[in-house]
Design a protein that fits this description.
Two copies of one chain form a homodimer. Chain A folds into two domains: 4-183, Rossmann fold; 186-374, Dehydroquinate synthase-like - alpha domain (Dehydroquinate synthase-like, alpha domain). Helix content of chain A is 44%, strand content 18%. The first copy, chain A, has helices spanning 54-68, 89-101, 116-128, 142-148, 186-203, 205-219, 223-243, 258-268, 275-292, 298-310, 325-333, 362-372, and strands at residues 4-8, 24-29, 47-53, 74-80, 108-114, 134-139, 153-158, 161-168, 173-177, 317-318, 346-349, 355-358, 373-374. The radius of gyration of chain A is 20 Å and the shape is globular. Chain A starts with a strand and ends with a strand. The relative contact order of chain A is 0.11.
């Protein structure tokens, strides 16, 4: 069974990390990049390649490299362009080219230093290079720390759909250094808050309440609030993934807001709306649909809109097609990975803190889209 | 645990196939393509896509399609170009394009109808499309029936190395219809015999003896001999894979002759030498190296050469570089997936029927290459 442990870094000398079989740990703490001891006692092989992007690389590549020094025969790096629009085969292939050019064998670990795009691509590369080598996630965005680096989903985008090509492949270790969030632009930070809000809505009413009273200190990036929120999100995600690693049931609830959100991302062109922005507008639409299906009351939708707005995130979706906007959304949503037999399966809220997956009549979905979009 | 069962088709009405968890069956028989009942009682989802190539498609696509009729909402097909040189990302992507164009969801099964190239590519596509859908191997070459369709290795080639990008991903079912071998060109049939010979050498002295006395009837494609040989090869492969699915130890012995063989394939350009031809010359080189290391006597090498020659296969490798042929082989072999820390690991014979994996001094390997190559 997959077992994911969450470790808070209070004093690293005291931390015991137990990695057996496919278990792995998420370490959360401040300035972890400067603590080489977190990598001690683990078998990462002979070669390391740090995959990062142009933005993150200039802040953190040398720090990670220094921490890994002496632990490998050779440490390479590969700096990819930054952005969702680069999460494609061409850039994935740059990772394979680098690995082969440096004659990296199976005793190689890929370190993914960056946000969700870097983590998804580096993880996918690790899962298929020579049929699988080790990888370590070092997420540097809020979104990656609370969501994409945990749970072992890897992917690249296809022009016809987000994350269409990928694997389930667990990292050996996840290192969440929240000091790296200090350089994150506000827009990216807000985008990460979308996933944080998601966890409260789908799984944890107490966390939802905590978020409503601590959102300002989170936005102010106060370490105590940040570390609590990151830990709670990782715990929730680990708990869900532990029960359903390959998304055969429960795990699908983590896609709340994502069915509409992916349509927004694909419809606008990858990278125009950030993932978290699409998810935000998508959560409002999914909440609105839940209300129209009688699962929640109208107040809940308003409270969600208010929290999303306070987080600096969009509460309306963009118009993707002036002639038939709802039709365009439906078309894009039908290729969602949760779809079955052409029927779109939505993650809906069945009372705060509880989510479910079900289909809905097209006419109702059209009404929701009409009510929740505006020209941007 | 992975469990692979081999079923001989004597009377299909009586066959019980037990598929639980990741277990699966290999069905071996005559004219299985015309027996739709072999697919009964299995959950393959709503959509089927048959991936084949231009050569095999014209013989067998309609027969497989007829057998699947009525079992799916929709059955699509995709016909790829034929040959190892097409086992690359561009053609893999054609499979994704077809799946997305037809809005295939996770309830889709890919049927790989063809030889090793089709099986490897379709299997890889199945393992990563939406993070994994079902697939069924319907191998139509001897090589695929005895080797590549069994054991769950999938891959595409990278310009710098064969099978560099891939996954371990088990099919739901393998259907070996040896009537499909009737249309196989002699050169391809011989190439398949290379892997048949391999199993005797590395694992089963009795099978080796049987091969020496039945090679002519095999080459004559006599059904009794064919079905025995295919079954025995599948049994050996299943037994090895069951013990070591992810090639952490034992499974590597299945690569006897492949380290040299992959260098030949890559060095000549994919498709110039057939895989089985490269493996044949590679087995001679590996046997020669085993002899020079004192593991087998010279007679064994001569017996192997004689059997390979009778099978219509090359017993000498090509000269890849007139100036430094051994250097070129070594360069190509260093990126073999079994290499560790730049050290090539060879599968060697430690007495007939027994294989081992170990390194060898470069100077000795150079002598072997010099002795075993000739200008073609």
């Amino acid at each position: 069974m997959l077992n994911i442990g969450v470790i808070m870094d209070s004093d690293f000398n005291n931390v015991e990390i137990d990695l057996e079989g496919r278990n792995y740990s998420i370490i959360i703490g401040d300035n972890l990049l400067d603590k080489p001891e977190i990598f001690n006692g683990r078998d990462f092989g002979r070669h390391a390649i740090i995959v990062t992007n142009t933005t993150v690389g200039k802040f953190y590549l040398e720090r990670l490299r220094n921490s890994l020094r002496g632990k490998f025969d050779e440490i390479f790096d590969l700096i990819l362009p930054d952005g969702e629009s680069f999460k494609n085969w061409e850039n994935l292939n740059l990772i394979f080219d680098a690995l082969l050019e440096k004659a990296c064998d199976r005793k190689t670990t890929i370190f993914a230093l960056g946000g969700g795009v870097v983590g998804d691509m580096a993880g996918f590369a690790a899962s298929v290079y020579m049929r699988g080598i080790s990888f370590v996630q070092v997420p540097t965005t809020l979104l990656a720390q609370v969501d994409s680096s945990v749970g072992g989903k890897t992917a690249i985008n296809h022009p016809r759909g987000k994350n269409m090509i990928g694997t389930f492949y667990q990292p050996k270790l996840v290192v969440c250094d929240f000091s790296t969030l200090s350089t994150l632009p506000s827009r990216e930070f807000s985008a990460g808050l979308a996933e944080v809000i998601k966890y409260g809505v789908i799984f944890d009413r107490d966390f939802w309440n905590w978020l409503n009273s601590h959102l300002s200190s989170l936005i102010g990036r106060e370490p105590v609030s940040l570390s609590y929120a990151i830990r709670r999100c990782c715990e929730i995600k680990a708990s869900v993934v532990r029960q359903d690693e390959r998304e055969e049931g429960l795990r699908a609830i983590l896609n709340f807001g994502h069915t509409f959100g992916h349509a927004i991302e694909a419809g606008m062109g990858y990278g125009v709306w950030l993932h978290g922005e699409g998810v935000s507008a998508g959560m409002v639409m999914a909440a609105e649909l839940s209300w129209r299906l009688g699962l929640v009351d109208a107040d809940f939708v308003q409270l969600l809109i208010a929290l999303i707005r306070r987080a600096g995130l969009p509460t309306k979706g963009p118009v993707l097609d002036a002639n038939d906007n709802a039709g365009r959304y439906l078309e894009l949503m039908r290729i969602d990975k949760k779809s079955e037999g052409g029927e779109i399966r939505f993650v809906l809220i069945d009372g705060l803190g509880k989510a479910m997956v079900r289909a809905a009549p097209d006419s109702l979905v059209r009404d929701v889209i009409d009510a929740c979009c505006e020209q941007v």
